[in-house]
Amino acid sequence: MSGRRTSAVAGSVTVSLNGQQHQSGRRSRVLRGLALLGKILASLALLGQTVIAAEVSGLLKSQTSFERQSGLQQQEWLLDLEYNAALGNGELTAIGRLRFDTVDDLNQTGSSPPANYSTLGGPLLSGKYGEAGLRELYWQYRGEASFWQIGKQQVVWGEADGLKLLDRVNPQSFREFILDDFDDSRIPLWMINAQFNVTENGTLQLLWVPDTSTHELAPSRSPYAFTSPALVPVPVPGFTAIVQEAEAPDAPVADSDLGLRFSNFVAGWDFTLNYLYHYVDEPVSRAQMAGTDILVTQQYERSHLFGGSASTVFGNWILRTEVAYESGRYHRTQNALPGVMQADQWSSVIGLDWQGWANQFISLQWFQTSIRGATTNLVVNPREDTLTFLWESRFLNETLTTKWLQIHSIDHADGVFRPWLSYNYASSLDLYIGADLFYGNPDYLFGQFNNTDRISVGFNWGF
Q: Which residue, among 265, 345, 271, has the nearest Cα to 309 in the 3D structure?
């Protein structure tokens, strides 16, 4: 590893929240945010009148969330502005993002971008009430037998929904755990994405990713800070823990990631073969004695990911499957020192979707993770099984949509319920209300958020 930057890992320290906010201060921040949004929209309208050869569009989202125990958790405004224009023989796309939250519970406390970002990867402005920056910027060109997309972008791999196996190219923001849409929580990276037609239906994708940004974890004072022993070190009674900041990769060439994917369509099956040589986006925490104290060091480690996916349609059914093998992954152990062990890991998912009833969509997925080799004293089981269930229904000429999503761990009996109701009020305006209800033992992935149940209301407006 040629370069390093330090980043604090949320979840290693727990900070209590008093929940006290001054209503006048909140109203003031709301008014300032709305004024800023108004100025941006006015500028956008002017730009649309003066730019002829380009297309400008936008998406404004607003969500207000009320937590069961602490009250108002989130009052967020999210504005994405997209600019598309011809450039050379290709097309240029730029997407700017402004996120403003009058409640600072989910945000970083500093005025500088979080340290998980590379030098050019993070937002331009960042603070405890939001951020502003260039979310995506890429140029794409389509040749006779090739496709190039160069710049800051997202790449999506795999067939799984809700949980990730192959979708590891881009890191993720865990500000809201996994509750946010992946399109919003996925962190775009600077990369070269080249695709070549190698057979009649076969495509070879090559990725070079010099952007060393990693996962953005929730700050320690956030309700979504990781506390599960399966994810973070557990304090040892009678000892003082000294936690060093994580040493993140920071050399664009030496620390870059490389990806390869071959996709094809054969005998009614879409399939892919995938390979990714990358830094795992969460650091490995190791504990050791330092005199009378315990020193916790944190480093990012490399891994080889091999895998593939396949899907096919038969009648009203869609069958999806995905498998991933990861070398040298680290897993938390019950031993305080060093607290981790290295072992390869298999992951798989089988999904079955059904659309046999009009305006109905039902999906069931079975995820399985298996840790190979010596697996004694692990915090989690050597084999873990998780089920997901989604039922989506549409009514009133498809203007009213109901969703019921459940993710459930078979091994630990924890999970999350996510009922959702949305109404298409106009062609470009959706209104919604939903809930995120966690359950289970707080020592495990979903149960650690058992006290963060919330109800959310909001809208999405495209223009």
A: 271
Q: By C-alpha distance, which of 169, 168, 165, 171 is closest to 186?
A: 171
Q: Are 227 and 11 a contacting pair, CB within 8 Å?
A: yes
Give the contacts of 291 (CB within 8 A, at least 6 positions apart).
none
Q: What is the DSSP letter of 102?
A: S
Please say if the pLDDT value at position 255 is more than 50. Answer: yes
- Non-local (6+) Cβ contacts of 324 within 8 A are 165, 166, 274, 305, 306, 307, 346, 347, 348
Beta strands per DSSP E along 68-144: 71-87, 90-101, 125-127, 130-142
Distances (CA, A) of 74 to 67, 100, 457: 9, 10, 10
Q: Check: CB of residue 76 under 8 Å from CB of residue 67.
A: no
The alpha carbon of residue 200 and the mean position of all alpha carbons in its chain are separated, in whole angstroms, by 34
Q: Is the peptide bond between 338 and the residue preceding it cis, with omega within 30 degrees of 0?
A: yes
Q: Provide the token pair at 238.
A: 């009678």
From the number of C-beta atoms within 10 Å of its C-beta (0-12, 13-18, 19+), residue 427 rates as exposed
d(CA 232, CA 229): 5
pTM of the model: 0.87
Please give the helix or strand (H or E) that residue 41 lies within, else none. Answer: helix 23-50
Render pLDDT for 47-69 as a digit per residue (tens, 0 to 9): 544 444 689 999 999 999 999 98
DSSP 235-258: PPTTSEEEEPPEEEE--TTTT-EE
d(CA 400, CA 7): 44
